[in-house]
Amino acid sequence: METLLQQIINGICQGSVYALIAIGYTMVYGIIKLINFAHCDIYMIGAYAGYFAVCTLRFGFTGTLLFAMAACAVLGVTIERIAYKPLRNSPKVTLFITTMGVELLLQNLIKTDFLAGPNTLAFPEIFALETYKFGDVIISNYQIISVLTTIVLSILLQLLVKKTKVGRAMRATSFDRDAAALMGINTNKVISITFAIGSALAGTAGVIVGLLYPKLTPAMGVMPGLKSFVAAVLGGIGVIPGAMVGGVLMGLIETLSKVYISSGFSDAISFSVLIIILLVKPTGLFGKNTREKV
Amino acid sequence: MKKNLRRVVATVGAMALCASCFAGCSEESAVETSTTSDAAVAEESDTVSMGFVLPLTGSVPNIGAAMQNGAQLAIDEINAAGGVLGKQIEPIFEDDENKPATAPNAITKLIEQNKVDVVLGTYASSCSMAMTSIAADSETLMISIGSTNSKVTEEGGDYIFRACFIDPLQGSVGAQFAYEDMGVTKVAMLYDVGKDYCVGISSTFSETFTSLGGEIVYEGKYNTGDTDFKSYLTEIKNSGAEVLYVPDDYDVVGLVAKQVKEIGLEIEMLGSDSWSSPDLISIGGDAVEGSYFTDHVSIKSDALAGFVDAYTTAFGEDPSSFSVLAYDAVYIAAAAMTNAGTSTDDAAIVAAMNELDEVCGTTNYKFDELGDPIKNVIINQVVDGAFEFVTEIAAG
């Protein structure tokens, strides 16, 4: 029983990282119906930005987190302005392929010696590891930080979307971009803000991952990126609370299938979730059925 | 109209691109068919060209750099002493990024384009196994430096040799050490199902350990690129294992060791030669302290003092066991060429390799019928962030 509890904690901790990345996928999809595959590499850049902040700028944890968030937000907005905005009225496939292009560009840029180089970097320890014992269950301060950061950021995001003027503009743009523009909302600005927030969250995930698994590689974003994408679809793509729940569920599915089904097949099981969801409930757990406009 | 024009331009562009691809392909196949006559061309050259395929970038760049330095040191020494058969050695280094998909490209370039006389490399067993058929087809001698999976020479054919011991030996010596020297009977294993190296070594470890009377209480398999091992480690905690066997690269081991500490698991760790890099300490920190691993050499041993001195003066850092293997591999190739009296006739060099029984680099080399050297296994321990010699276990 204690083992199961411990495994659930491991799963939630893993899932909190997926949740942070999944929010970015879901926000961008919600607002311009685009699956931004470059998002997983923004997360990777976040980890590298964190590395830079700790090693070169000698920031503490909060400083590192803020630096990575800012760096990723700027990067996200820049990518949107340069690569996606000119194509906003082109066919969906064009945009979709562009996101993959940007993904490859980012991965290969970071590989150059001018930036980080192709080699694995070891993320430094920002603070020492401590473990706390509750009966037979052990929780580390790293795990607590990762889950707490996710919870706090999720609540802030929820407040932003539901209670502020910007949030209302975002919801309006997501509902109908043309009508929102007619009502005097600067949709370009709203889309930029969405990219900035989604990317900042991915940057946070990057720093947390650096803390939990101190190994940085240019391709580190690919696997978590795919799993977070599945998480976003699982929760209902376009729905922010759905992405959070989906992320945690993905973490749990992955961890528990490793332990109780087969360790070698855990990835296959995680990805079959995507297929099952698309077959059974394509809108995801929290998604509403909307009729396609003809 | 404008749109149409664009479309036309795009189509023409695409066609041109396709055409150039095909042109490239046909050119390449032309090169391939003419390789048989290249031996004659190479005969004229007044240098011995050695091609190296090493993991210079990617997940284990430290090992690649250690190998490159070791090889360079040997080449400089041989060249200063007059070269091989009076000819200077000219090395060409290629990168395989430690990826089985890149390694064949690297060796193909060396053989087809640079027309090297021999190929030395590489590190990962999966990469070497992707290279052996190319070396065998072009009848080029290949000496793998650090690939320990037994299939490398078994399936590679007559032209494939290696400078390191093989996994069955490493796995069984590891098991022997765990059972006899560490005195444990319950071991948990954790390995990457996607790497030939990990799977091979784990299976022999498990066989030997069970036949000695021990028990494998948990077997965790993860995928290449996984970073979270806490779910496995939680299971291991409840399995009552006294030792955790993790035969994987140092970067993965560093993560595993950290998480062992994170979930409060108190267990001794045992590993394999792929731990042998200073970066084990930089990623794993004090979490890897006290762990044991099987290795090719001990840098601290007296026999290597001369080599270590020369290496540290030349490169300003300590060598790893892979520097030693690369260093030895160059000497092996040079010795075989000298004995065969030729640097270009690979069949004669291979014959000389099979006859070889002399000191090459740091130790004596003699190959069995498969092309594997008959060597002892060293056990090292991580003490204060350095690798200390523990014991030496004989082959067989």
Folded structure, characterized:
Chain A is an all-alpha fold and 294 residues long. Chain A has one domain (15-221). Chain A is built from eleven helices and two strands. In chain A, strands 1-2 form a two-stranded antiparallel ribbon. In chain A, helix 6 (165-175) crosses helix 8. With 396 residues, chain B is an alpha/beta fold. Chain B has two domains: 44-165 and 302-375, Rossmann fold (3-Layer(aba) Sandwich); 168-295, 3-Layer(aba) Sandwich (Rossmann fold), CATH 3.40.50. Helices cover 47% and strands 19% of the residues of chain B. Chain B has 14 helices and 14 strands. In chain B, strands 7-6-8-9-10-13-14 form a seven-stranded mixed sheet, sandwiched between helices. Chain B has a five-stranded parallel sheet with strand order 2-1-3-4-5, sandwiched between helices. In chain B, strand 4, helix 6 (151-154) and strand 5 form a beta-alpha-beta unit. In chain B, helix 13 (321-340) crosses helix 14 (346-355). Mean pLDDT of chain B is 85; it is low at 18-42. At the A-B interface, helix 1 and helix 10 of A face strand 7, helix 9, helix 10 and helix 11 of B.
| Number of contiguous helices of chain B | 14
Q: Total strand count of chain B, please? A: 14
User: Which spans of chain A have pLDDT < 50 for at least 5 consecutive residues?
Assistant: none
Alpha carbon gap, first and last residue of chain A: 53 Å
CATH architecture tag of the largest domain in chain B: 3-Layer(aba) Sandwich
